[in-house]
User: What shape does this take?
Amino acid sequence: MQTPLIPDDEAWAAVMARDRAFDGRFVTGVLTTGIYCRPSCSARHPRRENVRFFADGAAARAAGLRPCLRCSPDDVSRDERAVLTAIEAIKAAGQTLVLADLAQRCGYSPTHFQRVFARHTGLSPAAYARALQKERMAQALTSAESVTDAIYDAGFSGPSRFYSAAEDRLGMTPSAWTNGGRGVTIRWAVVPTSLGAMLVAATQKGVCRLSFNENESALRTRFPNAVLEQGGEAFGALLADVVAAVEAPGDFAHIPLDVKGTAFQEAVWQALRQIPLGETRSYAQIAAEVGKPGAVRAAGSANGANNVAVLIPCHRVIRSDGSLGGYAYGLEIKQQLLNKEREGSGE
Ligand SMILES: [Zn+2]
Assistant: This one.
């Protein structure tokens, strides 16, 4: 392998810092002792004038030097090869491989391999596989015919695995929404779904708006002081989660939200999130649920003030007589959502 040349002063700085990121990129030959080391070797630093840098162990050996027994500089390329082999295996598998299998393929013990892999990539093999899947999902969404295709194209064995891949998302707490989003950047997109055009908008904390048949100007009216930006890489992964939650209903409690209402509204929204998939409640039941059985009308208004359709499932509230009641985006969408969820819950 051709090793790019690193300027001597940069190499020396890496040695002084014992910077592991430079391991495998050059070795440090010490002319007085006749040994060569990886840059991060923990042995006492040699004097600068006694040091010569070599592209790799072979070059150092050709100059008559021996590998240091403490830092085993020749094992670095073995580690790199193992990590590259593992990355290829993860990519080819399209799903998470068992750590022990990966390690065995590379001839390492699982614990040692986990450490080596993390040192080179900054991630555990499992986290690396998950990140790769999210990236593929975001890419697939832009080209796939349907969301279900996108989920499978991304290498998930099915929707439930897709959800579990998102479980490590940061749990976001609702943050204050004041001043029309002043000082906040909101990323957004309008994507086609089986229910029609869906607008999804999110702050760094989570989804702040999910609606149907709305465009940028509607979003701007709602958040007049926010910076609105389309798309973005991290947003793509969140968007993929949201679209999947709409197309293949399941547990979406892991998708972070950024919503703010009055204490009563938030209590109602919380109660909506407790309605199990495939079930409905009446406005009266929701009012009772939040400890204000007389406030049926107020519960209805709080339901209507919901910013994040589907993920705060206001569509699961119907009239006591069983009729659908209202829905901000039309009764047809409400009915379709409820049908999907009944099918999805296996009833
Ligand atoms: Zn050494």
Observations:
- The longest strand covers residues 185-193.
- The beta strands are 27-30, 35-37, 51-54, 66-67, 185-193, 196-202, 207-212, 227-230, 281-282, 317-318.
- The two ends are 59 Å apart (CA to CA).
- Confidence is low (pLDDT under 50) at residues 158-177.
